[in-house]
Amino acid sequence: MSSPSEELWPGDWNRASLGLCALQALKDGPSYGYAIITAFERAGLGTFKGGTLYPLLTRFETAGWVEVEWRAGESGPGRKYFSLTPAGVLELEQQRNQWLAFTQSTTAFLADDSNRGVSL
After folding, report:
1. Percent of the chain surpassing pLDDT 70
2. pTM of whole model > 0.90?
3. What is the 3-state secondary structure (H, E, C) of 62-107?
């Protein structure tokens, strides 16, 4: 992830959404790590390092959500491409629905002035 001075969002938010965003980045077809990280940056999600993304993608491979294919490089070394499996597509849909419901509830809670100063 980016350094604290460059961070757009709190690190906890990035960690919470990284898996879902990685699955989303693969929904339109196979991609490789650097392209996924670049897509995150273009979307305004912040800067991530391969050391953060690649272990996550390896866990997704173990879970059966992505498959990996090595492709020869055009002018350099080969690249590891990741693509969603059918199970990964289902997982993306489930996580996306959960995230949207969660953020809707969170947004409603934060927007409701009657929730301010609630004591337990």
Report:
1. 89
2. no
3. HHCCEEEEEECCCCCCCEEEEEECHHHHHHHHHHHHHHHHHHHHHH
